[in-house]
Amino acid sequence: MQTGTGNSDPLLEPGEALDRLAAWKGRVDQLAVSTKSMSDQLAQLRVTAADDTKTVQVTVDAQGALVDIRFGRRIQQIEPDAVARTVMSTIRLARQQIAERAENIISETVGTDSAAGRAIAERVVHRLQDQRTGEDSDG
């Protein structure tokens, strides 16, 4: 049994309720700043990868979309099927690297300890894995 001698529920104490509300607002504001930073960094994210022989070099964006491809001089001496396989494997490598970088950005900004951070990281990785799987089945 509670009495009116200071043992009341802290949620009902106006001062403590305002403090809790201010702390919650601070966390929400920080999450908004972190999310904006993450979004800005992901929007600018690009990864360039090359095969071991530097015959093929590709650049992908944060969505895993191919934004550039370059070929070395040696390309003219390689069978077209081998070139195609090299292009596809280099794109997969770039997408793997972009997924790792995106995960790092998410971890450093919003963190993966929050439900939002975990959900964003899972969505990014899942999308890039789906693209790699789709290309494997096409080839």
UniProtKB/TrEMBL annotation:
Pfam family, one: YbaB_DNA_bd
GO molecular function, one term: DNA binding
Protein name per UniProt: YbaB/EbfC DNA-binding family protein
Organism: Actinoplanes friuliensis DSM 7358
